[in-house]
Amino acid sequence: MKTSIGTLSFVFLALAVVCSSNSNAQEGQSSHKDQTIPPKKAMDYFAGNWRGVGKQGTYQYTGRETAEWDLHHTILTHRNEFFGANFANTLLMVRMLDPGDQATIRENQFASWGVTRTAQYDVIPYGEWFQLVGTCTQIGKNGTRRTINVVTVHDQNHYTFAVVPMQDAPGTPLRESYSREGVAPYEMSADQTGEYLQAAIDFFESHPEADHTKLVDLKGSHSRWLLQQKRYLESVEVLESLQKALTDQTSIDENAIEKTTDAILSVCRDCAYNACMDTETPEEDLRVALNLARKASELSPEDPRIWLQAFVHYRLADHQAA
Question: What is the rounded distance in angstroms from the CA atom of residue 36 to the CA atom of residue 221?
């Protein structure tokens, strides 16, 4: 009987140790997921051969990519080839760690269609995986253009590359979806660029020590993307959040606040005008347009485009208010 009790005690002790070890391991895994992946390890993910599809506006194309490390494992060189209706182009891209800040990935692009780009990325958590989030400057025959680039890794074999113009920059959003060679494509039923941008915004908002400029740029581009999708109300909400962020800064940038106010006015006016000009706009959307037209008149009561508010009233058959 003593032997049985001793054996049982040993079994219970062993089980306790195992459970404790599993618990600690799970906690370790959980905390690891919350940590930013090392930039060099993030770069290593992209090594190999990929196949992709892309879309910018109504223009669609396919692509293939090959990425290889140099002999010293310090520079990752990407060769991209794109094929569309009546064209085939090549892009050479080089990524390396920033010599002055080993937490940042530097990128240089050289494209056969006559543009060069420079970008810098932060690596931030995204679910089980990560995102590369950063600003990019393009120089070409049409001048300089600045964008927010978000590379979102979904799993071991799929990632999405989204490009959204900065708040006051020209251009149309672009998105590309890549899969490792020989693997089925990633199912991209809808444009998820807004979700990718929001995930990055949430991360920077939850880290007060993060560079405030990055958050401002992300929100401006998010609003721009929402406007492209004709999601006017959400676009205004993001801009108002951006305006508050600018106002709450220790050093207030009056010029940036004024630009944001102008952007809010522009979205409100676009919504009211487009809703009224479309004879198929439902009443629910006209009510949203009316609220935004009112907001525009409050922000700029002396602006002659206050007639937009009357236009919406007219479309709602409220002739007296019009």
Answer: 23
Give 111's DSSP letter.
E
- The encoded tokens of residue 14 equal 């062993």
pLDDT tens readout for residues 87-124: 899 999 999 999 988 899 999 999 999 999 999 999 99
Supply the pTM of this predicted model. 0.81
CATH number of 39-201: 2.40.128.20
Q: Which residues pair with 175 in a beta bridge?
A: 55, 162
What are the domain boundaries of the chain?
1-35, 39-201, 230-315
Residues 269, 300: Cα–Cα separation, whole Å: 11
Return the HEC string of 178-236: EEECCCCCCCCCCCCHHHHHHHHHHHHHCCCCCCHHHHHHHHHHHHHHHHHCCCHHHHH
